[in-house]
């Protein structure tokens, strides 16, 4: 949990702390029996004197909302759920013992700040297209009866005309010929990952995930009971020799990689590294899951990128997505794999949710087959490149000799290091929140230190300069 105090002039600080704790209890963010940070640490988080924290906690204890024990700290009263006076079910037991693990609390703090101060935040954290970059394509006028008629084509693998359109698109962009029984339409890439972790792996299995990676921000792997091992990477991509060592030590069952404009680093795996990784995994009989949401968002017209799937069609499960091209509300992706695997995942998905809604599938198919789609892609690539350059130029202007980065050649993300921050702590990133500058710290992606991901998809000339200015102020305060 991120502890932050929006200080109010008309209310004593200790009362503000009381209200803050009560609010977290009411919202279920502090559960019965949960231990609060030590007094000194809480005072540090809230930037107040320790005596102020002590007074607030004493008041909360007097009202019965917390229990303070000498030598054991302060806990939320287990006999209370929210602020009720009578004993309630101890939901903490159920929450803690469930299989699903929540995302990083820092992400919750970002969302809360966006909701509370939408006009004041500079958002370099959200990895989604803004509305102005979504396709300006007129959709067909379809009646309710038309959608119901199309439902007849909505098989367990997904809407057949959409799978045909995806297959044609993959052939044009990669040269891969796909049969419709090799393609499973999903509600975004995360559903594909969820199906893989739940249906093809077992609790206790070991998987290798390149580090850093956005996969570490997803609770899906821990919730499936998988053992995660970091696969080191450099500018050329994931290191095959490191994977071989992991396999010998831990019997790795599957490798997850995002080789093209990787999230969060923006890195592009080299052709030689791709071939080496695919060759090793084939030799060791380790399936590869290739996540490729940014493959079509390259900024260089002469860029030739070979998907891992093309190097080994049998051993690579390929995940594609339209969310980064059409907008996050589309939530349409697909999984390309051997027919037997795809059918097994489709059966499991039907048992869970009875398939996908026909509406987004029909719309995605229409956009994909539209004569305007290529124009939209060209516009999107040019605009993303422009926004990348705006952000980089502003950062270099305000942070001379401070910034370390590698210019991404596609995608949404710029991975930077600010050495003066040294080892970033929770308090360091509280400063970013205080400045209403939203960034994604390296620890969200499994990497410590003064690194962070900046998403440039939402950048304007004004916001880029303001972001750089706030970075400079944070670094100045750190000195």
TrEMBL record:
Entry keywords, A to Z: Aminotransferase, DNA-binding, Pyridoxal phosphate, Transcription, Transcription regulation, Transferase
One MF term in the entry's GO annotations: DNA binding
Domain annotation HTH gntR-type: ranges: 11-79
Top-rank taxon, per record: Bacteria
KW Protein biosynthesis (keyword) present: no
InterPro entries according to UniProt: Aminotransferase_I/II_large, HTH_trans_reg/aminotransferase, PyrdxlP-dep_Trfase, PyrdxlP-dep_Trfase_major, PyrdxlP-dep_Trfase_small, Tscrpt_reg_HTH_GntR, WH-like_DNA-bd_sf, WH_DNA-bd_sf
Family membership: In the C-terminal section; belongs to the class-I pyridoxal-phosphate-dependent aminotransferase family.
Designated name of the protein: GntR family transcriptional regulator
